[in-house]
Amino acid sequence: MKTRNQNLSSIMKNAWQMFKTTGKAFAECLKKAWLLFKLRVKMQSQIVEFYYQKIDGSTRQAFGTLQDSVFATLKGVERKKNEFTFTYFDTEKNEFRAFKNFNLISIAA
To answer: Are 107 and 50 a contacting pair, CB within 8 Å?
Structure first.
């Protein structure tokens, strides 16, 4: 479990990384970093509905999770690590998916 300071540091690092790579306003990058953090926290305990922009510009509705119980059934399958993308397990497709950090649009209520 990360401490509050570690979480804040991770959020700020993610925001600066998006700022440097996208050239968007830092405030916008910080909002995306917080949204990604909230998504990650929710996904660790449940299946979450969220939306992101695909590379072709269309919006994708996704249902995903990061629960350990799901990964226990996937022996031998490793998630790819990339600091510019968010990798999750898609519960509809039963496989890993990823999207660029800045392309997250929203988390369903």
So the answer is: yes
